[in-house]
Design brief:
Elements: H1 15-19, H2 22-31, E1 35-37, E2 42-45, H3 48-56, E3 61-62, H4 71-74, H5 86-97, H6 102-123, E4 129-130, H7 131-136, H8 138-148, H9 158-167, H10 175-190, H11 201-210, H12 216-227, H13 231-246, H14 249-257, H15 262-272, E5 278-283, E6 287-289, E7 292-294, E8 299-303, H16 304-307, H17 342-359, E9 363-365, E10 369-370, E11 379-381, E12 383-386
Parallel strand pairs: 2-8
Antiparallel strand pairs: 1-2, 3-5, 4-12, 5-8, 6-7, 9-12, 10-11
Helix pairs in contact: 5-12, 6-8, 6-17, 8-13, 9-10, 11-12, 13-15, 13-17, 15-17
Bound molecules: protoporphyrin IX containing FE.
Protoporphyrin IX containing FE (HEM) binds near residues 270, 341 and 344.
Length: about 375
């Protein structure tokens, strides 16, 4: 006999909770394998094992009814890779992932590293600066601009569009975010083979559309999938990594001594401070979690950042430890919708840390300013110094 899911009086979207979600995550995990949140009118899963299983159960917990909580975000269901299921999803994902394999990205790594080294040299010994703007945002913006091949116009708006896209997944809508998303749609819709750079990912998509392999709309959806989910995610994850390394000199010293730990440190960074808070699914049939069920037709939030701090999976989960094996973390999901850009994100973060280690610098961080985005957890400002 299944039990009703425990009811939890928790507002995950209150400003205080967005700035420090961990006390609420702890209550949520302890309350049950799945809980009901009357504040938001949905179910939520926060324990590691159960979030992992739910992400893999894509035949029952579907994305095609939208993965946000708002009508505004979910209105584009069926039109972007993240809000589709089955054969349509596989087709869209195959298009998006073509240039994003580790083998294809290997060629870009050396260029990204060289750019990062120049940037670090320019910032070293120059006093305090905002690491979000000057360090964390640098490679994601360069990569999107150059690899995707977008025209100059619009590039300066991309960061605002990306933040707005994640804020509107939440239950409360800000008119200005909706307007920014409309602006982004107009920009994406204005792109064509003439406006994007020769030899770029976007040029390849328009060539495929020209030869009838894709529709023009599919090409534009794929370009949006390179731009919107790739910026703030990687920028905020880099910010957390910088903050964690600067405030724990022993961990930084260990990385400098053993740079072979850098790939593990990046994975531990995204586990410890997961930037994407959640996406949701709709149960196409009753879905059992522990002793309870998510009834057919109900929406359920899957909390990546909460799962990654689950003491049932990771000993001392609140500790940032570059020697931890965090390879199974859920910061980029798992299952069929697992992040399509994770190899690029990993390269960007590895290159950032490698270049800092090779520069032989000491890191210092001041008090960060935390953002209040409904979908993303991270700093809007991080005072930083390289000496
Ligand atoms: C640290 C950086 C990143 C994090 C934490 C992150 C996180 C995630 C997560 C959790 C999902 C799963 C969504 C789901 O379960 O429905 C996802 C999907 C996705 N991500 Fe990322 N992401 C990052 C960087 C990127 C980058 C750099 C790109 C593009 C170049 C990208 C493109 C995508 C796309 C297209 C999907 C949808 C995949 C699908 O539905 O099949 N992401 N990401």
């Amino acid at each position: 006999m299944s039990q009703p899911a425990p009811i939890l009086d928790l507002d995950l979207f209150a400003d205080a909770s967005l700035k420090d979600p961990y006390p609420a995550y702890c209550r949520l995990r302890d309350a049950g394998a799945v809980v009901r949140l009357p504040h938001t009118g949905v179910y939520a899963i926060g324990r590691f094992g159960e979030v992992q299983a739910a992400l893999r159960a894509s035949d029952v917990l579907i994305s095609g009814e939208g993965v946000g909580l708002s009508e505004t975000f979910n209105a584009s269901k069926g039109m972007n890779v993240i809000q589709t299921d089955g054969a349509l999803h596989r087709r869209m994902r195959a298009t998006v992932t073509r240039p994003l394999s580790p083998a294809t990205l290997k060629a870009a790594r050396a260029d990204l590293k060289a750019m990062m080294k120049v940037r670090i040299a320019a910032l070293t010994g120059r006093g305090w600066f905002d690491a979000m703007q000057k360090l964390a945002a640098f490679l994601p913006v360069e990569a999107v601009s150059h690899l995707v091949g977008l025209p100059e116009a619009g590039r300066d708006r991309m960061l605002e569009w990306a933040a707005a896209a994640f804020n509107i997944i939440g239950p409360r809508q800000a008119g200005e975010d909706v307007a920014k998303m409309q602006e982004a749609f107009v920009y994406m819709g204005s792109l064509d083979a003439e406006t994007v750079a020769n030899g770029s990912w976007a040029a390849a998509l328009f060539a495929a559309a020209h030869s009838g392999k894709l529709s023009q709309q599919e090409a534009i959806a794929a370009i949006s999938a390179y731009v919107i989910p790739s910026l703030d995610t990687t920028i905020l994850a880099s910010g957390h990594l910088l903050g964690n390394l600067a405030t724990d000199p022993a961990q930084w010293a260990l990385l400098c001594e053993r740079p072979e730990l850098i790939p593990a440190a990046v994975l531990e960074g995204v586990r410890h401070s997961s930037v994407l808070r959640w996406f949701s699914r709709v149960a196409a049939d009753d879905y059992a979690v522990g002793d309870s069920i998510v009834p057919q037709g109900e929406r359920v939030m899957l909390l990546y950042g909460c799962a990654n701090r689950d003491e049932r999976r990771y000993p001392e989960p609140d500790r940032f430890d570059v020697t931890r094996d965090a390879r199974d973390h859920l910061a980029w999901g798992t299952g069929p919708h697992m992040c399509a850009g994770m190899h690029l994100a990993r390269i960007e973060m590895e290159v950032l840390i490698e270049a800092l280690v090779e520069a032989g610098v000491r890191l210092s961080a001041g008090e960060p300013v935390m953002g209040v985005n409904a979908g993303l957890y991270g700093f809007v400002e991080l005072p930083f110094r390289l000496s």
